[in-house]
Structure formats: C-alpha cells, structure tokens
Amino acid sequence: LQECILSGIMSVNGKKVLHMDRNSYYGGESASITPLEDLYKRFNLPGTPPESMGRGRDWNVDLIPKFLMANGQLVKMLLYTEVTRYLDFKVIEGSFVYKGGKIYKVPSTEAEALASSLMGLFEKRRFRKFLVYVANFDENDPKTFEGVDPKKTTMRDVYKKFDLGQDVIDFTGHALALYRTDDYLDQPCQETINRIKLYSESLARYGKSPYLYPLYGLGELPQGFARLSAIYGGTYMLNKPIEEIVVENGKVVGVKSEGEVARCKQLICDPSYVSDRVSKVGQVIRVICILSHPIRNTNDANSCQIIIPQNQVNRKSDIYVCMISSAHNVAAQGKYIAIASTTVETAEPEREIKPALDLLEPIEQKFVSISDLFAPTDLGTESQIFISRTYDATTHFETTCDDIKDIYKRMMGSDFDFEEMKRKKNDIYGEEEQQ
C-alpha cells in the first residue's frame, strides 16, 4: 500500500513512475486474498475449503487487518487524490474494550457514556470534564491549556489533574488514543491529546464508530492508488520478478528483471526486496479466524473492533481484534472474518493471543502467521533507495501514513503537502474539466 500511494503521489507530481511487483496481485503484504482456495494454499493447509464455506469467489480475506480513521490521514489522502471514486466504504458498527474478562462497548455518544458500565457515576463526570478539555484544547492558543504545558507536562499528570482512575486511563489510552503500550504516559501530553481529538472527530463524522472499511477488502486501496498513478502516466507491471537492484558508486541506477534493466534515479520498495538494508525490529502474530456467528456480547454487530489493553492481560502491548463479514463483500453469506493481532513478546506467540481467540469461539478455521517487522537501516540519502516499514500491529493506518510522509520527505526534501497536491491536479486537468 505505501508503495502504491507513493507511486500515485509521485505520478501526480509529474515524475515518471514504473511500478513493478513480483506478485500476480496488487498490494503485496496488504493484499486481500481471493478466492478462499488461495488462502488455504498460502497457509499450506491440506485439502480445499469445506462446502459450508460457500463459494470461494465470495471471499476477499485481508492479510493485514486495519480500519481507516474517518478523520485520519489515509482518508485525507483518498479525498485529496479523489481515489474515493473507485471505492465504497462502510462504517464499522462498534468499538469494544476488554475489562476483567468481559467486553464493553466504547461509548460513542454522551448518552452511551452515561449508560455505560465501564465507569461509575462520579468517574463519568470527571471523564466528561476531561473530554470537554480535550475538545477545546488548541496547541496554538495557551488560553486553552489550563496550566498544562503541551510540550512538557506528561499525560500521567494530565490524568491526575482530572483525577481519572486506572480503568479510565486504560480505556482512554488504549481504546481512544489507541496506544499499544503504556510508554506514552511519561511523554509530553500533546500527542495523546491530538490522538483523542482525532478519535472524537472521526467518531463525530458517522456516529457509530470512528472507523471505516472498504467494500471488497483492503486490497481495494492499493489498486485505487495504482489506478491514480496510471491516469497520470505511471506504468504498472504485475508478475515481474526482480533479479537485482543495480547500484553504481553507492547509488541506485536501475532494476534488473528478466534480463533487462529499467533505469531509475530513485527507488521505493518494501523490506523484502532489500534484506541487506533493513534490520528486524520485532514480530507480529496475526490469526485470521473464520466464524459462522457474530462475536458474543457485541449486539450481533456485523463488524467491530475489540481492544484488549495490555494491563488487562499482564502484557506490555495490546491485543486487537478486527471483525468484518459478508456485509462488506469479503465473506460468503452468514460468515464472519475476525483477525486477532498483537506484538510478539515471548517465545510462545500463540499463547499470547489466546485471550482474543477465547472471545471468538467457536472458530471454524484459523490461519496463523508470525511476521518479522523490519525497518530500514539505509535512509536513502546516498543510495536513493527508499524502504518502507513493515506493517505494525496497530489496527488503523495512521502509522502507515506517517511512514509515507517520511519517505516523501526523504525523497523530495520537503514536507508532503495535501494542498499542493490538489493544486498540481488542477494544473494538469484544469478547473473546468473537473466540474
């Protein structure tokens, strides 16, 4: 996905782009696999899917589970590039948080918050005060700080200021600010406040939850941006084996494939193409589960997210569950896909993810993957090879978009600017034709 978005952006910027993929489908790691038979093959499961799974063609199973924040950076990229015309989205029905072995709906309205059994009455009042403070907080207006220094005061101290208890802190940090660990507590509060604002603003857009999901699966996203690149003259080659990245005097000059060299000045790729220029920074376990029932205690939602804060299960990082269903054209009628994921912390990753799988029982079929996470050791300054990071365990695309903006800055020497992109589109198409 990062490479597809960048190829779209670079094409709009007037660059000549050649996009090669060794796979026969778009999106690499962030593809949606169809038909279901291919998923069985990919995970080396014997035999074929049972007839109870319906038609293989009705399935589009994401390899990496993520939702889009309604007001987040990826939605902005989709809107600014107008890639939204190739996609249809649905709002995810609810977000849930795990506490003491049970799951509770993350309140999405004031009425829900007041009725929620996540916290007691006095706690609710203090929490409401805190939310009002966050909503009014403006980092450019010190009048809204109320004695907090956004660059110095830690989030732990902000929670103290509003006298919020541990349960509320857990739920705010992990289900609203969407942190995977508790490291944020001792960092300056500005980023956390902005994350809670993003959650609230995303929630305000559609009301049920702050998350969106594309019909036919996340694999539609890279395809949309590949189409954008093609409109602006980019060339796309699927099924193209990469034999060698040609480097002269420490700088990339081309890519060799099937005996020919395509020459280039800059190259963008994922870690799997350049194992000598990346280092392993961790692992993520993901378990794709096929169910014939909605998840218990979610009011039979046909889509939801469940967050298991690390404190609740004595871990350092959260466990996530993303669930979608036939309502999103990704599964056969009456079937549900739930994907559990977390950052690996021990030598027994499957035990670590068990609390999530227990919520999904009975599971008809599961597909387990453990992926290494890589980050570039070469930032591309000399080599002009720009390497994306592996997808982390987060269940939204904010970190992915940060990576895209980072690569853009290293390539172009300037910050990625949505407004400028809009202007460039107008230069090429002209105002009249767009109306």
From TrEMBL:
Gene3D superfamilies linked to this entry: FAD/NAD(P)-binding domain, Guanine Nucleotide Dissociation Inhibitor, domain 1, Guanine Nucleotide Dissociation Inhibitor, domain 2
Pfam families recorded for this chain? GDI (PF00996)
Q: Which GO terms describe its cellular component?
A: Golgi apparatus; membrane
Instruction: Extract the PANTHER family matched here.
Output: RAB GDP DISSOCIATION INHIBITOR BETA, RAB GDP-DISSOCIATION INHIBITOR
Subunit-structure text: Interacts with RHOH. Interacts with the GDP-bound inactive forms of RAB3A, RAB3B, RAB3C, RAB5A, RAB5B, RAB5C, RAB8A, RAB8B, RAB10, RAB12, RAB35, and RAB43; binds RAB3D to a lesser extent. Interacts with DZIP1; this interaction negatively regulates the interaction of GDI2 with GDP-bound RAB8A.
User: Where on the tree of life does the source sit, at the highest rank?
Assistant: Eukaryota
What is the protein name for this chain? Rab GDP dissociation inhibitor
The UniProt family comment states: Belongs to the Rab GDI family.
Q: Which gene encodes it?
A: Gdi2
GO MF terms, alphabetically ordered: GTPase activator activity; Rab GDP-dissociation inhibitor activity
Biological processes per GO annotation? protein transport; small GTPase-mediated signal transduction; vesicle-mediated transport
User: What the protein does?
Assistant: GDP-dissociation inhibitor preventing the GDP to GTP exchange of most Rab proteins. By keeping these small GTPases in their inactive GDP-bound form regulates intracellular membrane trafficking. Negatively regulates protein transport to the cilium and ciliogenesis through the inhibition of RAB8A.
Q: Tell me how this protein sits in the membrane.
A: Peripheral membrane protein
Source organism of this protein record: Pitta sordida
